[in-house]
Amino acid sequence: MIRIKICCISSLEEARLAVSFGASALGLVGQMPSGPGVIPDELIARIARHAPPGVATFLLTSETDAAAIIRHQQSVGANTVQIVDALQSGVYEDIRQALSGVKLVQVIHVTGPESIDEAQRIAPEVDAILLDSGNPNLQIKELGGTGRTHNWEISRKIRETAGKPVFLAGGLHAGNVRAAIEAVEPFGLDVCSGVRTEGRLDPRKLEAFFKAAHGFGS
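RE: above sequence
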């Protein structure tokens, strides 16, 4: 059964709601240059501490220095680090050695065919790749939470060649998630705005999304 990560979790109550519908991972958004869902590190740490066994807690960090990424994870205790921008200084091995047992997930923002080469280069360094629809080249970087889809044909080529599990994000909702799964065949899904109403998790949208993702209709 496909893994589903509910991102932009804003409270313990939202975390419990997401898990109750079957979420296998929670996305906890640290400080970002733009986009929804940012919460204080203190709250990220609290939600991570209270997550049930078997539920992954993803720290979304916009840090681009390996030492800063290490410090960010150590301050909150999430069991997975989702690096939403390109690593600029230090190397992935530095992070692995410092954070034993913590999974590393690198976001690739699918902007064009060049993203295939980027994913193939980075995949051996991390545990999984997450494909999103941001644009890190803007003056104010978009690093997630755009609500936009991207070219799923490129995502499929990345999934076929990366050699690591691939999560698909970007504009997913109950109405398009089956098409996304059929087009890309990802390991997992990542959804934020598609299960929210006025910024809050919506139980009806969660139910519809999980049913559609698991092939039971929307």
